[in-house]
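User: ok so my PI wants both of these folded by tonight, can you help

Assistant: No problem, let's get them done. Here's the first:
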Amino acid sequence: MKFSEWSYTRPDYSAVKKKISDCKSKMQNAGSYQMFRDAWMDVKKEIEYMVYQEEIIYIRHLCGIDYQYSLGEVEIQNREEPSVYALRDECNRIAAASGYRRELEREFGNRIFAHLDQHRAAESSDSIRLQSEESALKLQYRKLMVKDNRDDEALYQVFRKLIEIRCELADSFGYDSYIDLGYLIQGRQDYGTKEPADFRRNIQKYVTLAVADIKAKGIDYDYPPAIAANPGELISAIAAMFKDLSYETGSYIEEMTQKELYDLETRANKRGNLFTCCMLPYEKLPFIIGNYTGNGMETGYTVHEFGHGFAFYTAARKQPLYELHRSSPAVNEIHSKTMEHFMFPYLKMFVGEHKKEYIRNHLMQQLENLAYRCAIDEFEHLMYDRNMSRVQLCELWADISNRYTPWNRISPEDIHQGKCWPRQTHIVESPFYYIQYDIAQISTYEFYLKMKSNYEQAWSDYMRLCSEGGSKSYQELLETAHLSNPFIGSAVEDICHPIVDELYSLL
C-alpha cells in the first residue's frame, strides 16, 4: 500500500495513558520475569503505535498536505505528548530499578537504560507546561519560516522566548544551565563540553585556514545542474544506484519506491529547502522529504536522506527495540553523509559529465560547513544567557562567525541593527545537534579514504555500523566500524589533510 493511502487516526491520548498506567501496575505487581517483561514491552508497543500515527500526520504537515488540518493535529500532539512520555519514563525507571534489570539487559543489551536521562520527560506540572510551550514555539517558528516574506521581528521574538523557556526547563530539572540538559537530550553520554570545544579549535586551526586560502582563489563553487528534470527522474536514478550498490540497499529501495515513501515535490505551505527523513516505527520504514528543483546539490541532499532511511531500515530489522533502531546524531550522520560518498561512482546518472566539478564542490562545501557548524556550536554554548539583548546576541555571533568563517564578514550596520543572529533552524528545532554533523564528517572522510584503498572493506564496515543502530555506545560503534575517535590526538588533522590535498588537486 502506498503511503498516500495510509490512514491516520488521532491517538486517543487518554486511552494511551490509561493503558500505560495499567502496564505500570502490572510491572509493580509482577511475580515473574515474563510477566514483568510483557508489561514493559506493552508500554513500548503503545508508544510505538502512537508515534507511528503521529508521524503520518506530521509528515503531511511538513509536506504542506492538508496543511491547516495537519497543523491542528500537530498542535494537539505538542500538548499531549509530554504527559504520555512522563508515564513511559516512570515505567522505564521502574524497570531500571527492578530486580529484573539484569535479565532485561541480557535479553536486550546493556544500552537499553542508557536512554533514561536522554528521554527523560516531565517530572512536574511545570516541566510538562514548559515542554508544551517549547513545542508550540518551535511550531510557530516553523510557520514563520514557511512564509515568503519572513517577519524578522517575529522570528526573533520566538527565538528569544525559546531561550527563556529552555532556561526555565533546565531549572525545573535542577540543571545549572540548559547546556547540560541539551547534551542529555542529544544522547551525549560518551563526551561532555570539553571534547567539542577542543574539536572546534582543531577545525579552526586546520580547516578554516585551508578554506580561506582556497576561497581567495575566486573559484565559483556552484553545483552543476542535475540531469533529472523532476522528482520522478531523480528517484529513478537513486533507485538504480541503490540496486547496484548491494542486495541490502536494493531490497530497501524496492520497498521505498513501491510504497512511495518520499515526497520531493514543491508546493505551497511546504517549507522551502527542507530535506529530512522521518521514521515510522510501527512499520519499520522511513519517509524521505525534500524540495527538488533540479540543482545538482539537491541530488546529494536527497541521497543523504535516503542514507538515513537505509540505516534505520537496516537496524530495525536486527535490533529488537525501537529505541535501538537509531544511535546518537554523531553516528546517524555518518550513515547519511557516507552514503553521499558511495554516490560518487554513480555521478554520471546525476550530473552527467560534471563529475569532477561535483566532487570538487562537494568537498569544498563540506570543508566550509565544518567551520560554519563549529561557529554555530560555539554560539549555542553562549546564547543561553537570559540577559543578552538582541544587539549583544548579534555582536556575539559576528565575533564568532568572523573567527571561523572570515570569508563571510558581517557588516557593523547589521550588527547594530540586530539583524545578524543566525537563523539556522537546528538551533530552534534540535539544540546542540548541528555540531554532530561535523563530528560525523570526520568519520565520513575516513570512510571515503577507506573506499579508495579498500572499497569492499569500507562497505562491510558501513553495513556493520548501520546494523548495530544504537545498540552500542558512540565509542563502541566507532570501534565496530574501524573508525578513529575524532576527539583524540591529531585525528582531525590526519583525516582532513588528504581531503584538503584532493580538493587542491581539483581546482
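One down. Here's the second:
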Amino acid sequence: MKLHQLSLFVENRPGQLAAPCRALAEAGINILTLSLADTEQFGILRLIVRDWQRAKTILEAADCVVNVTEVLAVEVRHQPGGMLEILEFFEREDLNIEYTYAFTAPRGDKAVLVFRFDDPERAVDKLKNSRINVVGGVELFRDVD
C-alpha cells in the first residue's frame, strides 16, 4: 500500500539535477514521477521508481545522498473538485499532509496524487475504512514504465 520514495539533496547550480537522472538513465531505471523543491542553496529531488532499492544503490554509488520515505499514492477523480474531495476527507480525519505532488499519467477517469503524511500508518488505517483507493506499487507500476 505504501510506496518508497527516494529523496536526494542537490545543490542549486547548473548540472546538479542532471547527474542523478543520468545515473538512473544509464542503469535503465525509469523515473515514474518526481518533484523538485528548491531553496537558494539546495533542492530536494523526490523520485518514485519501480526498483527503488536498486535505484538507491546506483544513486549512492554516484555520490548522491539518498533518503527513503514512505508515501501513499491515492486516486482522485480527474475533474474539477476531485482533489478537493480528498483534501476534505483528510481534513475530517485530521490527517496532516507534509507535501503532495501529482503522478505523471492519469488512470482512466482518475488522477493519482502522491501524499506524504506526518503519520503514514494512521493515514493508511483511515484510508482503508473509506472508499478512497490507495494505489499499491504493483497496481501503479503495471500501467507505466
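Helices lie at 18-26, 52-61, 82-92, 120-128, 137-142. The beta strands are 2-11, 31-38, 42-49, 66-77, 97-102, 110-117, 134-135. Good luck tonight!
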